[in-house]
Each structure stands twice: as C-alpha cells, then as structure tokens.
C-alpha cells in the first residue's frame, strides 16, 4: 500500500485535465530551451513522468515537446538525469515514430542504451527494431579503444531476441556465438587498473594490476568466471559476466537445431553424438561450428562454476552468489544435454557429486530443484537411478522449508512444469500431497492459482479420498504449521516469551507440546499419504485449535478451500468409479458437520458440498440405495436443518429425485416407505403450530422441498398418498400462523400455500401425479419439450384440463418447478 501522501499525488496525476496538461507541457518545452538546466526543469520532468505513468492508457503529448525530449535523449552532452527522465516519459506516452530515434544511433554507450530502451518499448514489429539490431551487430564487430559500446550491447541484445527471436539470420547468430565464446572463455586474469591517490604532494597514480582471487582468497589458477573476486574489473571481464547472464536465454532461443549449416542438419543423431564426444577430447575446439563451440565452452564454464561453488566463501554475499551460480549452471547444463545427449555422460559425475554435497544442507534447497530437473530429464539416458533424489526432494524440502516463499513458488512451478512426467515416473509424487499442501497452507494467497492448476495431477484412485480430507483440513494444517514454527522459536521454559504471543496462542502452544495430542499433530503434519486416519478425533483437534481460528494465516487459508474443492470434484467426477463415488458421498455426509469453526468457512464448504452432491447422484443414481442407511440417518435428524440447512435441503431433493425403481431396481416399497416416514416426521416437527413456538429459523425453500419430496415418494408407493395429502392440508395453517407471518414475507407464505395446493390437486389423480412428479430417467431430455411426436406435451395438456375441472386453481409456475 502507498502512503497517504503518495496516494494523493497519484490521484492528482490521474485526474489532471487535458487543457492543464497541455499548458504544463508548454512550460516544460520553454524550460528545456534554456542554456542552463535548473532544478525547476528536473522537477517539472519528474512531475510529467508521474502524470504519464499514473494511468493505464498512454497520454498524448505535444509533438514539439516529444521532439525536444528525443533531442535531449540522443544528446551525449546532456546530464544523465535528464536523459533518464526523457527516456521514461517517451516510453510511457503515446508511441512516437521510432524510426527517427534509430536514424542516427549514438556511439556513446550511455546514450545508446537509453535510446534502445525506448525503441524496444515502442516498437510495434520486427522492422521497427531492425536498424537498432544492425547497429548492435556492427558495434560487436568493431574494435573501439574504450570498449564501452560492447558492454551495453548484450543486455539490449538479450531483450531484443526475447521479443523478436527471428530477427537474427544464421550468419548473425554465428557471429554473436563466436563473440560470446571469446568473452566467456578468454577474459583476462588480472584485475582492472584502478587510480589511487599519491598523497598530498603528488598526483594520482595508477596501481599495477593485481591477480584475481577465488571466493576463499586463493589466487585464481584457471580461467575467469563470475565467481572470481577483484577490486575492479576489465571490460572483457564485464563482458564475461554479461555473457553468462544471457547464455541460458541464448541457448534456448538459438541452440534448438544444433548447428546452422545444412550438412550438419542432415547428419544422423549418432554422428552428432560421436562428433561431440570427439570434440570434448580434442585439444582444440575451434574446428567446431560456432553454435557447437559455444555449447562446449558454456559447458566447461558451468563445470568450473560448480567446482568454485565448493570453496568456502569469505563473505556472505559471495555465498549467496555461489548458490545463484549453482542454480544457473545446472540449468544451462540441462539445456546443453537436452540438445546433445553425449554431454549427459560428462555431466552426470559432476551433478551427482554436487547433489551429494548439497543434499543435507537446507540452505541450498532451491539448488536441488534444477538438479532434480536434470535427473528427471536425463537419468534414463544415463541409466541412473533417481528415486533417492525425488524421495529427498518431496519429503524434506516442503516439510522443513515451507515458510520460504521463493522456494515454495519455484517448487510448485517445478511440479507444474513436469506434472505429467512426475505422475508417470516418480512413485512418491502423488503420495506426497500432504507435504506439497504445506506450501499452500503457509502461502495461500500467493499460490492459489498455481495449486488450482496442479491439484488434478495429485489425484489418484488410491489417495483421492484422503486428499479430500486433507483439503478440508487445510486451515487446521495452517494453524499447526504456525504452532510448529512458534514452538521451534521458544523454549517451554521461557514462559514470558510465550505469554507475549497472547493468551490464546500460548494455550495452543501448550497443547501442541503435550504428549496427549501428539498423535493428532503428527497426523495433520504427516509428510505423505497413507500414514493414519484421525477422522474420529477431528472434533478434538478443532477444539484444540479453536483459539487459532481468527489467525490471519488460517483465515486466508480457509478462503482457498472452496476453490480447491470445486477443482477436486470437477476432476474426480470425470473419472471416478462406483466405489469412489460411494466413498465421496460418505465423506460429504460425515464432514459437513466436522469442519474447523471459522467464520463463513462452514457455509462456503457446504455450498460446494450441496452442488456436487447433486452432480454425484446425477452421474450415479444408485448411490441413494447404496448409502440408504447413512442418508436416512442424516435426513431423519431435524438438528441438521439448523446447522446445515442448505446441504440438508439438497439431500432431501436428491432423495425425491433419485429414490425410484426407474433408477435402481433395488428400490423397494419398504425402502421408499422408510424414507417417507422419516421425512414426514421431520416436516411435522418443524411445522407444528404452538402458541409458545418461536419463529422458524429455516427458509420457506426447505418446506417446499420437503413437501415436494414427500409427494414424489407417495406417487411411487400410492398407499402413502392419503398420508401426504393430510400433511399438505395443514400447510395453510402453518403458513398463516403468527410466528411464521412474523418471520416470512407475504410472498414466502403464498409460495408455501401455493405449492401445497398444487401437490394436493395433483395427487387426486395418482397416475397423472406419478407421470408428472416421477418422470423416467430420460424425462429431462430437452427434445421432449420440442418434439411434436413426443407424448409429453399432450400429457401436460391433459393434466391442465383435468385440473381445470377439479379445481378452480390454476398453477402459476412452470411444471418443471414441481420437482425442484
């Protein structure tokens, strides 16, 4: 969030009128024509930069001011601050013609870099940046005395090929590749010359170049790399650093086809591998084509960096640089091995030694990801067992480093990139979802989008139900991880520090360390699937963590659970078999009352449950009979109405819709009667009219669904019709009672009365009622409403005529709503 003063400035910049902006631009134009640049000019340009940057759309500036800003931008004699501001303003404003900027490129490195940034931002196609490209390549070929142009060339070239990879021809690619080889491999071994003061009575003198050192202080004995340390650097050493920073993107862009000449493209894969192996042992690699030579030198450079990373750095910053170089080097070697498999046999000894060195050090956890990627891509080629690598990766990194946001993001990205391969080749990938979800529990707001995409790959038939439980327990996992972190920071004896966390957190910390609850926390923090089940003790866990329910981390985590549930059910219902559907239905019935008590969490989860309960029963209607005992137990309890009304309403609806012999021949009269009697008792209990009765705490929708379901069941066992008719006849009394009138609107009470009247009239004709309220399994086909040869339109006309004769009441709702 911005500070209040900054917010105010941004708001003013966005709301400035066009007339005022034009006057302000005119004042700046006059200031830029003065000989001496004052502070007022700089201040005005800063304000104009804020104005053009504060809006999403590009502001159009006067053409004369734009031309003047371009002049300032291209003038090497102008102060750098003015060039920076001019470049930023032109980039953010409406695109000018980039051809004028490229017409006469400056040879001053600083000026050229600012012009290039504008051209690359404003260019609309490859032709717009072609003059800039020619100038860059020309500067690469030139040998200027100061060498400054080349130093700024590579960053610009890297950005250019990222945007327009096809801009370089094969000859130009070979030219750049040769230059990159020279900079990468043949930089000087002495530090750059530096000026020092000679004292008060003498002028400055140039120090003799000193040798470079390794990060541990030893004098460099091999070629220069980014891990060589010096007080100052020569231009070719700077170019070495720039080259290493862009070599990965260069190889990905221009090294996908091996060599560039036609003869090399026609060689067989075996010949290519043989040539690469010969070149590796050759005394000189200059005979190789430019691309292959760059590949060879880049590989040697990465090997040297990995060797240098084993040295004990004297400075902490150098240690961090070593970690970054390991990650980049292994990634580059992975790319090279992908293009030429012969390098795999040279790379694996180095990678295996590196893994053995980093495996036990959690500070290098991020470096394990590119190593794992290398094993995933090339272990089969080299016939190397990679199981231990992935066991370590999935078991230890998430469990011990879940609170590292950068590692969490990169780890999830690694899984997303390789999801299909991990499913097929890594046995413990799907088993490790309890660990992977720790990343989401701790970093829920930052990783929800990635986990929505990743979750389908974690679903397997043998762990799908446990995964569902784990998603529902995700807020508990967030609370447990929080307690685990706090417990590790504070000793039990340091009671004062504990109490500073707040009384509620301190009580949870006490419970976390008690042996009595150890099993509960070990389960919720388990590293892999299939290590236990505490469904019977979840209520106890929720009670222990009750004081953590308002924690911001827990609340944010609870907000992502409904999203994940939608993804989970949408994925599972596409491939679930009958057994899994039965298990999921049981989970819905069990867990709707076993949820962590967080504000709005239960309601949101039950909405998802309700939606997918209907989907499950629609896909497999026999579920109602398969789980009749559990469904009947749930539906016969009025207490479920008051705590989970929406889900209860959907359960009643699926009973009326799918408890029919047309869906399952096992649906007997006895079964229908048992459901009918249970729902009848519930409806009777909640609609009793007493003088002391309190207003109903359930919606009219529940009453209408119960009435309709009872009517549906009665049509399938017609002996029940008199009982449901008697029950429906009491609905007017219920709807007109004082407590109900005080709670429901007039429209609600009329809806109850109307629905009861409709059903009573319909049940007077049992065969017609069965036809309307209990259609066959294919009765919801849209063709029935359009096909003139179908019997349903004629049947509906007959029903309308019969109701006309038997009652003055005419239904005001579509017939389709009678069973909703």
From TrEMBL:
Transmembrane segments: none
Residues of the AP-5 complex subunit zeta-1 ARM repeats domain: 321-438
Pfam family, one: TPR_AP5Z1
GO cellular component assignments: AP-5 adaptor complex
Domain AP-5 complex subunit zeta-1 C-terminal TPR span(s) in chain numbering: 450-802
Tree of life domain: Eukaryota
InterPro entries hit by this protein: AP5Z1, AP5Z1_ARM, ARM-type_fold, TPR_AP5Z1_C, TPR_AP5Z1_N
Domain AP-5 complex subunit zeta-1 N-terminal TPR: 1-280
PANTHER family cross-referenced by the UniProt entry: AP-5 COMPLEX SUBUNIT ZETA-1
Protein name, per record: Adaptor related protein complex 5 subunit zeta 1
Protein source organism: Cyprinus carpio carpio
